[in-house]
Design goal:
Number of helices: 11
Strand order of the largest sheet: 1-2-3-4-5-6
Shape: globular
Number of strands: 12
Radius of gyration: 18 Å
Order of helices and strands: EEEHEHHEHHHEEEEEHEEHHHH
Distance between the termini: 53 Å
Largest sheet: 6 strands, mixed
């Protein structure tokens, strides 16, 4: 593959460019998608495939980093339209694809009336279409990459591309800032540190991020992710309130990439990063009591 072949499909979520993407991946069993975005983005996905001379029916496999709606929300809708599509997901995430009721109820509490325009339908994936992602997925090395989510996996292609989902953070090409998306409910800073180390050990040639783009400065990128993850975690752990945290997070981005502050806020809203970290520290306190 040339580098151009790695470029993300822009799903134009909320009508915003470089917000949510997915990737067309060549596997040892034909073309696959890595992540698929929410159901509201299916028309944009189909249009992008058509530009590449493909239809949804040409895609044999859907590889999911995790089950958050911006990454996997359209899975059931796609399978309903393309019943041969095989969906590869972690063992932790699989039950929530088959029965997304609890996932949808939780998301509706968070998003309220904005759920439907943001995400659209959250259709179940038939159990017969679900494949548990093991160590090898169609020729890609698959490994747990928890920290952002307990059901997160990343997949390393033989060509050196790591399809990282959210495990390597958010970075809006061509900016340099690497934002750790830390929404509730299961942020785990220690697990995320281990994921960064596991990624470094595999020494990928490039990182393919769902939010948003492909980056080849891998060691520097991961170092910046670790630094900001620790900094943000310490701020909340030391008692910073939400308004101060949001202002500080925006300032971090402003200092690095002043023209990208709002683009980052679209991809990983600063005010959604605070409660995930606050919940992490609250759980730590409860477990220590």
């Amino acid at each position: 593959m040339t580098l151009a072949a790695h470029e993300p499909i822009d799903l134009l979520h909320k009508g915003v460019r470089k917000n949510v993407g997915c990737y067309l991946v060549e596997t040892n069993d034909g073309p696959a998608l890595f992540d698929c975005g929410p159901a509201t983005c299916v028309p944009a996905l189909k249009a992008a495939l058509a530009e590449r001379g493909l239809e949804l029916g040409d895609i044999r496999h859907l590889l999911l980093s995790h089950i958050h709606l911006d990454h996997a929300g359209a899975a059931g809708t796609l399978v309903r339209e393309h019943p041969a599509l095989q969906v590869h997901v972690s063992a932790v995430g699989a039950p929530h694809l088959i029965d997304p009721g609890k996932l949808e109820a939780s998301a509706r509490r968070l998003y309220g009336d904005s759920f439907d325009p943001l995400w659209g339908e959250l259709a179940p994936v038939p159990a017969e279409n679900v494949r548990i992602a093991g160590d090898d997925v169609l020729g890609l090395e698959c490994f747990p990459s928890t920290g952002h989510a307990s059901h997160h996996v990343s997949m390393l292609h033989p060509d050196g591309t790591l399809y990282a989902g959210d495990s390597a953070g958010v970075r809006i090409s061509p900016a340099r800032f690497v934002l750790p998306p830390t929404p509730p409910p299961d942020i785990d800073l220690e697990a995320w540190d281990r994921t960064i180390t596991a990624t470094e050990r595999r020494a990928p040639s490039r990182l393919a991020l769902t939010h948003f783009g492909v980056f080849e400065d891998v060691p520097e990128h991961l170092a910046r992710l670790r630094e900001t993850l620790h900094s943000w975690g310490e701020r909340v752990g030391h008692g910073m309130d939400m308004a101060t945290f949001v202002a500080a997070a925006r300032a971090d981005c402003l200092a690095s990439d002043p023209d990208a502050v709002e683009a980052y806020n679209h991809a990983a809203p600063y005010d959604q990063c605070f409660p995930g970290l606050a919940r992490y520290w609250r759980k730590r306190g409860e477990s220590a009591a």
